[in-house]
Protein 1
Amino acid sequence: MTIRFNALVLLSNPLGLDMEQTAQEMFLRHPALGPVEYSGDEMTGTLTVDGATLSVAAVNGVYPESEFRPPLKLTTRTGNTPVSPKHNAYILISYEGEGEGLEWAKAYAALVTLAAATFAQNPGVTGVFWPASYGLWSREQVTEAAEEIMTGQSPIDSWISFAQIAPNNVGRDDVLGVVTFGLKPFLGREIELAPEPISVQKALTSVYGAIWLMLDDGKVFTDGSRVSGPGIGGSYTIRDVEFWLRRGTPAYVLVGPDAVVDAETLLPEGVEAEDISSTDEDGSGSRLGRLFRFR
């Protein structure tokens, strides 16, 4: 399986690379990594840790504005103020290689994050962009993510983003669900929490808890199984489907006992599969575009 992770360190002005200094700084900040080898010049280079090589490129230009816009409006679990994507240049840090399983993916994502945190200490950095989740981090946030990694934890709030969904046919604001962006590179699936009567914070906490179980606790979700616990805040049936709300996006669908969809059919009560067989889709690419709206 090919694993790919990218991070962009956004700059107010162009900055030439100093690969030797960066490698030294990365090791000094995180000595547990061991030696950091380097190569390159002011425009391109590499950083290598334990045989894994990152590609680095300085780009004197603006990353396409459209790439910063997620298909859905994101919501934050932590209350952090969104970072502006304004920039005039950027440093692109990339990893692409072969690996099997979650641990490989986490290791390479961690390495890209640690390198991004090191480059982010340079003057003129306006933020760090994680394209897989449309995540925009401040210098402080990416530094915190690096610190989490070195304690053996996945920086879930940095690697994964969240968006709210709600059913069209229930006239209540407290009935909502959540979908993720950024989990697929790790597990081959995103999470989609089926709408239910729940607060935004509890919904986000439930999805965060499910992600933690898979990324850091080794839990394996299987179709039809149930997951529960204090970190999730409820009991959910897991459906493993090739897509549900987002066409072409495999998902673990979490269905609670009060969800507005049936755990077996994943459809609202009284709705049959043929009722949504139309190929018409809303702007979000939703399979159930006439039944759900994306906030």
Protein 2
Amino acid sequence: MSDDASTSGGSLERPEDAGKGKAGLVALWLDAIALAGKEESDWRDSAADALAAYKGEQKDKARAQRRFNILFSNVETMAPAIYNSVPTPNVRRRFLDDDPVGRTAAQVLERALSSAMDGYGFDPIMRRSVKDTLITGRAVVRVRYEPTMADGALIYERVGCESVYWADFRRGPARTWESVPWVAFRHFLTREELERLNSKIGATIDLDARLQGVEDKDGQPPAQIFQRATVWEIWDRDRRRVLFIAPAYRDAPLVEADDPLGLADFFPIPCPIYAIDTPDSLVPVEPYRLYKDLADELDRVTRRIASLTAALKWRGAYSDPTLGDFLVKFEKLADGEFAPMDNPGAFAAGAGGLEKAFWMMPIEQAAGVLQQLYAAREQIKASIYEVTGISDIVRGASQASETATAQSIKSQWGSLRIQRLQAEVQRFARDLLRLKAEIIAEKFEPQSLMAASGIPVDEQVMALLRNDAMRTYRVDIETDSTIQADVARAQQHASGFISGFGQFMQAVGPAVQAGALPVEVARTMLQSFARSFKLGRAVEDAIDSIGQPQPEAPGAPQADAQAAAQQQAQQEAAQAQQDAQMKAQVSLQGDQLRAQASVQAEQVRAQAMLQAEQMRIAAENQRHAAEMAMKRDIERERIAADMQARQAREMDRMAGMTN
């Protein structure tokens, strides 16, 4: 559909100017939509031009054949670097504590989300969103809840996503997404769809739009099958109402409905993906705008290259008319094949011989200009790559022969400037899944949840799912990409704690057993050591209980006074022997610890010396590589200068021979 079907207006000075009643409401909303359209009109024109450039469309067909489509190349390079796999929902208890109800609710939501994603093409929607972002500067995707009824009974529930065409979206005035008061989606409906939307007046509404490319024939409008009615679907967050308004019917809205989904943020869309963040406005900026001048220069150079290439032909003239038959025969010769001359004596007797009978068109200067144009085109491409960040991806390309460290460094550098957009796409996918999960929790019946997840859903689980606040507090919805860093960090903490705990017990355990180190001191040291790894409340509670007296079982027999006295005597008798053994063992352990510390210090010094030597060798290699590169550049310049000098001498020689 063409954007010509947008509503006119944007001229009301006050809300009262729209009038009263339902007709005033329609006029007010059409005026608001028109104002929103005017705010982004320049961007929509630029986005349309960028889309045409991406598809290689141009009014001048001759010029279109001589373009270097750098936008297509950039988009196809950036898109897989930003999004390359379907996200996997990851729903879990927020604090990972002992919460059986929260655990079951998380499992139900995760399986229901996975089933919902398999029911439609989530991956194509994400890929199209990335293309919209890179070409037009903004991507919008909405979620839909679609219950299926039969004879008044619910038989199936579905929640899906669909892309919103970039030119069919409007929003209320705001500088940040959180402040947007309303959003609107434009639809082009057939007569049947209008009647389903409003059975009373759907048949009377004029079809004011037509399919793109369909024109009037002999002054008559096209058939109804090619005509559509423009309808705006408006989501008013301030009043939490949804309206359907047709510019061709201004008496009243086609549909008015209260909040149909019950979402916390009301809107059926997450915050759109913006290719370029601007702090002063929500009007998108298409990336092509930032290097369009360079792209136009690239096209001009490409057209000049094509023109010069067409001029570089092997052609000339001959002075003797009798050479015509010889040239026809000469053109048919293959590589290494010779042909006899009909009258070699006549050619030899001519002035200057056979070589003087021909004149070849000089192409050396054109070839030199062509080389400079190719170099200029590469320089323009490099400038565009610097603007877009593709130069980082190129520098980050690794080879199989490189070390793992070198590949890791290149991987980090190669994605440095596109990490923001990668994170934005990951955030967008996560927010879509959160909207879908919120609809599933609020709308799906228990039997639908059980069918989608395969897990029995009791009243406690349903109560948690239906409660917005409790569900948000106890359940966290992420994707595998958004939690990847958290999972890796938790694994590192666990691995580091296990390794350090083993060394701690090996060093401190004998001293505790010998009594040289009190249990309370050892527990305090272990607590301080464990807190730095953030292992969770359960692990910290287990460490706190080390060495604490355990409660006695009820009804346990108590020792009498005689047994207690006998036990005291035995303890005092063994105390002297234990003190002597303890002193000897502590002294031995002290010697062992000092020796171990000395060995570790020596290892650290050796490792430091090795690293210093490796850094010196790396620096030397870099210096040597730089010197070699400089030498190669000097040699190339010398060779180029020699070639230019030889070409100049040859041209002088040919000029002298001509004279």
